[in-house]
Amino acid sequence: MSDTPDNNRPGSYQVGYGKPPTHTQFQKGCRPPNASGRPRKEFNLAELIRKELDRPITVRENGRTIRMTIREAWMRRIINEAIKGKRRAQRTFMKVAKPAEAWLGDTGPNIFWLIGSE
User: Is the pTM of this model over 0.85?
Assistant: First the structure.
C-alpha cells in the first residue's frame, strides 16, 4: 500500500482554492454559514389558483370513475347546466368561453349563437 500517492489514500484531503484545511472549516460554537437554507418560493394568487385547478380528482360519471383535473370537472358541470337551460351557468359559460375563443384564435363558426349574445 506504500506505492499509492498521498492524495489518493482514503482520508487524505487536498487543500487548495475553495478547500480550506479541515480543522478550520467550521469552528465549534459558530453558526453555520447558511443555517436556514434557501428560502421557499412564494406563490402569488394566480399561481395558487392555477395549481389548485390543475389538481387531479376522481369523479363518478354514469357508474364509472374518471380521473380529471378540477378545471375539467368544473367546465363539464358548467356546460351540462347550461345545456339544461340554467341562466347562471349560461352566463358563466359565456364569460369563460369568449376570452378562450379569442385567445385560441378560433376562426370556425361562432358557438355563441346557441345561447344568444348578451
Answer: no
Q: Where are the beta strands (DSSP E) in 4-105?
A: 56-61, 64-69
The dihedral over CA atoms of 72, 74, 79, 82, expressed in degrees to the nearest 10, equals: 180
- Average pLDDT of the residues of the chain: 80
Say if residues 56 and 67 touch (Cβ distance below 8 Å): yes
The H or E element spanning position 111 is: none
- 53 contact partners, CB below 8 Å, separation of at least 6: 69, 70, 71, 74
Q: Which of 85, 78, 71 is nearest to 116 (CA)?
A: 85
48, 35 contact by CB (below 8 A): no
As a whole number of angstroms, the longest Cα–Cα distance in the chain is 91
Taking the C-alpha atoms of residue 118 and residue 112, their distance in angstroms, rounded to an integer, is 9
**Residue 117 pLDDT greater than 90, yes or no:** no
Residues 6 or more apart whose CB falls under 8 angstroms from that of 73 comprise: 57, 59
- Any idea which residue has 358563466 for its cell? 92
Q: What is the pLDDT of residue 61?
A: 87
DSSP state of 63: T
